[in-house]
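Kindly draft a sequence, keeping tokens residue-aligned:
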Amino acid sequence: MSKLPSYIELTRPGNALIAAASISIGAFVSGGIEPLRHVLIACLSGMCIAGGGNAINDYYDAEIDRINRPQRPIPSDRVSRKGALLFSQILLAVGVGLGAALGWKTGIIAVCASLLLTLYSHRLKRIALVGNGVVSLVAAMAFIYGGLAVGRFGPTLIPAWFAFLFHFGREILKDIQDCIGDTIFQAGTLPLRCGERTALIVGTHLFLLLILSTIIPALFRIYGTAYLVVVVLGVDLPLLYIIRSMWRDAGRANISRLSLILKVDMLIGLLAIYLGAA
């Protein structure tokens, strides 16, 4: 039991809760959260898959994390690599099992998400843009997963697109933040292959495309006024600040701060989508 908090830390609980929130919003925008039991099972499944994906990422990144994030459970010797691997496999298996219990469509998405997260950590993370795109795709799939849990997924494509762009931009910023450790271990991330300036340019274009995309549902009256107010003030303006700030200072400390702001911005974005569909 003494190691339980460290194992929970491996899952990055905040990210797991965001996954559950995304699944819930996906169900809600599809017309409601009934049957509620299905939504709850999908949320638990998504949390297990997200947690398992984070744990296996720590397993593969143990040596890099000794430089980039020495406080994480494995490099700080609070959890063994073998224990982290077994824990991740259990979580992924439970997540897939719960997804399959809801139906074959959710089962396929659960399997695909688990495989993609494992491949990402094992190999794809070190391929410029490919790894970033895989993580972003899995994040987008959470909304579709929620829609499928209640039998409807068409309306989830809008928030899924938002999530894809949002996570893509944030992942590139995280690559800039991790350049020191990634350089030592010769990771093939975008800032290492093409330079920090190129990474900033790509991140900027992704965030600007996201800002433009968030306005479109309001213009076509898919989402209402409450959505527009919250998304402009709570998401788009902070994104413009982040773009300005990352160009002024791309140092590790500032990028880490901006990454945290983006995580909060993510929650505000979920609120905006909820208000838009309410």
About this structure: The chain has a mean pLDDT of 93. The two ends are 42 Å apart (CA to CA).
